[in-house]
Design a protein that fits this description.
CATH superfamily: P-loop containing nucleotide triphosphate hydrolases
Number of helices: 9
Largest sheet: 6 strands, mixed
Number of strands: 10
Radius of gyration: 18 Å
CATH topology: Rossmann fold
Helix content: 25-40%
Distance between the termini: 34 Å
Bound molecules: adenosine-5'-triphosphate
CATH class: Alpha Beta
Structural class: alpha/beta
Shape: globular
Length: 248
């Protein structure tokens, strides 16, 4: 733990083209240890593409990513060990029980076989899945499936947790519970979450970055906005309502 640098993700000049379309253009992003960063932006802003590049699931067209000081493009296996990732569509095998699936996820993440039982107990406790280990995933509500998705992302106790729209499709009670969980995760790891929900950022995050049309257009600490009495809603409108991309 002490060997982990203070900056857990540093991405510079990250770009990704799909054919002639530029989805992400020269994005810089830094995540500090113990920080929860909210990535905000309208539909199609480039949030998921950025997160896929930060997790090594999509190659950037250009740019670099370091995870806990390890170059993600040069040493992907080593760098990915530090990362837990909940994609927009959680990779659940719904015909498995929660226990079977989490056991499988633990093996994929190279959790020591002798520790798997205790790790499963701990992660189920953290994610509120204690009593449903024997349930088939496809019989669970969307909220519980999302918890299973988060559980697989944190099962190897990663330094960096990346959650793509963790609250999507959840009811208000489930959203509240997931937020409490994310805040909890932020105490032991650094977290990036993407969302459209402004109160989610205000309630959970330490810092916010806003993307629009593939570029990073705004970055600030939530405490700073609060201190200056600035409304995140107004800032979001100001930086995302224009049609033309706003430069850094
Ligand atoms: N595999 C792909 N092939 C072609 N275009 C893509 C691909 N993936 C994303 N895009 C395009 O890149 C742009 C950014 O998409 P991305 O999914 O990253 O945005 P987003 O901010 O996550 O949006 P949302 O909030 O709707 O999920 C969009 O114009 C999208 O259509």
């Amino acid at each position: 733990m002490n060997d982990i640098p203070n900056v857990t993700i540093s991405a510079y000049n990250l770009s990704r083209n799909f054919g002639k379309r530029t989805a992400v253009h020269k994005v810089d992003l830094e995540l500090r240890r113990g920080e929860v960063l909210g990535l905000l932006g309208p539909n199609g802003a480039g949030k998921s593409t950025t997160m896929q590049m930060l997790t090594g699931n999509l190659a950037p067209t250009s740019g670099s990513v370091q995870i806990c000081g390890v170059d993600l493009l040069k040493n992907p296996q080593q760098a990915k060990r530090y990362i837990g990732y909940l994609p927009e569509n959680p990779p659940l095998y719904k015909e498995l029980t929660v226990d079977e699936y989490l056991r499988f996820a633990a093996k994929l993440h190279h959790v020591n076989l002798s520790r798997i039982d205790s790790v499963l107990t701990e992660v189920k406790q953290r994610c509120g899945l204690n009593d449903i280990g024997k349930r088939l995933i496809n019989t669970l509500s969307k909220g519980y499936q999302q918890r299973v998705g988060i559980a697989q992302a944190i099962i190897h106790q990663p330094e960096v947790i990346i959650l793509d729209e963790p609250s999507i499709g959840l009811d208000p009670n489930q959203i509240r519970e997931i937020r409490i969980l994310i805040r909890e995760l932020g105490k032991s790891s650094s977290v990036i979450l993407s969302t459209h929900i402004l109160p989610e950022v205000e309630g959970v995050c330490d810092r916010v970055q806003i993307m629009n049309q593939g570029t990073m257009v705004f970055s600030a600490a939530l405490a700073e906005l609060k201190q200056k009495n600035l409304s995140l809603e107004r800032i979001f409108e100001q930086f995302t309502l224009r049609n033309e991309p706003i430069g850094n």
